[in-house]
Amino acid sequence: MTVFVTGGAGFIGSNFIFYMLHKHHDYRIVCIDSLTYAGNLSTLSSVMDDPAFRFARISITDKEGIDKIFEEEHPDTVVNFAAESHVDRSIENPSIFLETNIIGTQILMDACRKYGVKRFHQVSTDEVYGDLPLDRPDLFFTEKTPLKTSSPYSASKASADLLVLAYHRTYGLPVSVSRCSNNYGPYQFPEKLIPLMVINALNGKPLPVYGSGENVRDWLYVEDHCKAVDLIIHNGEAGTVYNVGGHNEMRNIDIVKTIIGILGKDESLIKFVEDRKGHDRRYAIDPAKISTDLGWKPETAFAEGLKKTVQWYLDNQIWWEEIISGEYREYYDKMYAKRLV
Ligand code: NAD
Ligand code: TYD
What we know:
By secondary structure, this protein is of the alpha/beta class. It has a domain at 2-184 and 221-245 and 282-300: 3-Layer(aba) Sandwich (Rossmann fold), CATH 3.40.50.720. It has helices spanning 11-23, 63-73, 87-92, 95-115, 152-171, 193-202, 222-235, 252-263, 288-294, 302-315, 317-324, 327-337, and strands at 2-6, 28-32, 53-56, 77-80, 119-125, 175-180, 182-184, 207-210, 216-221, 240-244, 249-251, 270-273.
């Protein structure tokens, strides 16, 4: 069995590669990644010499490159993690989001049709459902919730989801889609909430909380997401969407305070800054379908997962120091200069 993992040099894709190589000893895993700012080859250094693993630097928007690797490797399954993934960047520059997230998905699926696969799995997000009010804790996103996106990022992911489901209906491509809540864990790029706060706190820098900090996200430890995708590609029904989340809603401000507590820092580091444009208020997944149909349930409790994650950033300073000294510094200065005055 050969599995293509696109975007495998990023946060969730790399965790998925480690999970799959550990779990399925007879599988061949081919990582396809163009190594954008968010992709890091150093993340994959522990598996580079594994004979069951191959890394190929190809963009999913490069049709010829994608066709060539399909001809060489004949994948049984393609799991598409490759994407531009950061909401704030999509607000600054939407076009690359449409290119990668929509056209890239189309090019991959066209190759799947041409060469034949058993499954094309699209890794999507709960952000396609828009947001929920803060004062209605009884409301959750189900697979039947209408798509109603807020940011160029979520609009590009929703477009890709529709295209994936259209390829199933029109061409009979055996697809599946997972829509997961916010992930956290090792190897997350420092532009996202949890690693940004951990690293800034360690460096004694201000912790920029958008708006009032009351926005709610539904957090899932990355390995639990990887387990869900593994289950779906093996046992999930073709043409089906599965929501993935662990009923773990937290306000941003509470996460930031918890991180400060774990690191023994002072809450005076918190700085409330200008809000994100179109900022989604609350995400909350109802995972009943994947739980009933496939027996999935999250295994890592938030308190334990957050401690493990903070410890990982403490133990892997070289990994993130290399990142924050490069292009990221320019991004950070540009995005936060206005906010932090
Ligand atoms: P990430 O930004 O950490 O990694 C994305 C990876 O994709 C990088 O390695 C990058 O180099 C690669 N990539 C980007 N453009 C590419 C292209 N044209 N061709 C090949 N590779 C390309 O993202 P992540 O947080 O690991 O998210 C992975 C997927 O999961 C995304 O599709 C995202 O929408 C989805 N998702 C993320 C979360 C989350 O909380 N992070 C939650 C739900 C769903
Ligand atoms: P993020 O990690 O960017 O994920 P997403 O927007 O996809 O949910 O942000 C999580 C939440 O944290 C979101 O409500 C925005 C907020 N946030 C801050 O308050 N400050 C920050 O510096 C960042 C990056 C995010």
